[in-house]
Design a protein that fits this description.
Order of helices and strands: HHHHHHHHHHHHH
Distance between the termini: 37 Å
Structural class: mainly alpha
Number of strands: 0
CATH class of the largest domain: Mainly Alpha
Shape: globular
Strand content: under 5%
Helix content: 55-70%
Number of domains: 2
GO molecular function: cyclin-dependent protein serine/threonine kinase regulator activity
InterPro entries: Cyclin-like_sf (IPR036915), Cyclin/Ssn8 (IPR043198)
Organism: Lepraria neglecta
Protein name: Cyclin-L2
CATH architecture of the largest domain: Orthogonal Bundle
CATH superfamily of the largest domain: Cyclin-like
Length: about 300
Amino acid sequence: MAPEPDQLSSLSNPLTTIEQLSTSSSQLDRVPADLESSLRFAGAQLTQAAGILLRLPQEIIAQAIVILYRFYVGSEGGSFRINAVKDISAASLYMTAKISFLPQSTRSILNVYAYLLSPTSPLRQPLETSTKPDPESYYLSEGSYQTARVTLLQTESILLRSVSFITQVTIPHHLALTYLQTLGALPPTSTPKSTALAARTIAHLNTALLSPQLLYLTHQPPALAIAAVYLAAREVGVKLTSAEWWEVFDVDREELGFLVVALGSCEGWIRDEKTRWRDGGCPLASEELEVEIERRERESA
């Protein structure tokens, strides 16, 4: 990742370069660009679901998703054909939680992922199917646990080396609420509109984590926070100020415009992805990915 000049600031993250965005290891390994986007989305969904089951706060989950994205960026990064997204997801969440105030044991992580990756988990079934989860399908024997634990720790080492041990991830959620308070949109006594505004702002920032444009890798937290506040205020019907208030926070109109459009398009893209993979989910394991790539190659031959 290319560090920004102010990377020591608590409000900044290392951002990707244009070169890293244009070429990835997965593309060099002949993973189609649309499938690469689907795999990133599936990895983020898996990480989010695992974090919720582990009762981790959204800040830790979001940081893990960003770390996962960083791993697969650029020609020097990881490849989906070599590093299965399910393994990188588990390692990202384990590593992020470990350096937080809520570390998780390897057994807790692996038990949750065994459930989410089982055939009867909600993530692996068609949308219309409501089969009751089968405990036998996600039970980890002692031998299976020890094997999975070795894989998890090895993957964590690979992940750390790939991101150059840069584990700092600043999330814009708290910053967005601070901006709302500064703009006088969050009064001491909450109102229905102020509550809706705050909730919609946070929702946009959570949705942006799933963006195919990798917004958390290409824009700094203040810009993401400003765009979420701007879009949420427009949707809820809250007038913040007539002045170009975003410039006070060092965000120019061009960047704001791009981010507002990108945030607004996320929900539609996510719906399309869920529909696209409704019959069993995106391939999360290496062998599943190979089957999908071979199927595409046969169809295009």
